[in-house]
User: Fold this.
Amino acid sequence: MPLTCRGRVRGQEPSRGDVDDALGKFSLTLIDSLDTLVVLNKTKEFEDAVRKVLRDVNLDNDVVVSVFETNIRVLG
Assistant:
């Protein structure tokens, strides 16, 4: 939610159906952030972030994902 600088939290926001599954718990923003660090040549910050991801993020989620979002943000 870029205009309010808040994220969406499942259970605290009104459900938007499959949109919440496609955008949430899939870590697309995390992937965008890591890409940005590389593009800006922030290698130390990138390495720190990757360590935190490996320690704290679980990508083993059974969710509906958007093929479009996956293609443009993850593969791109």
Summary: The chain has a mean pLDDT of 76. Helices lie at 18-23, 28-39, 43-56, 67-75. The radius of gyration is 14 Å. The first helix runs from residue 18 to 23.
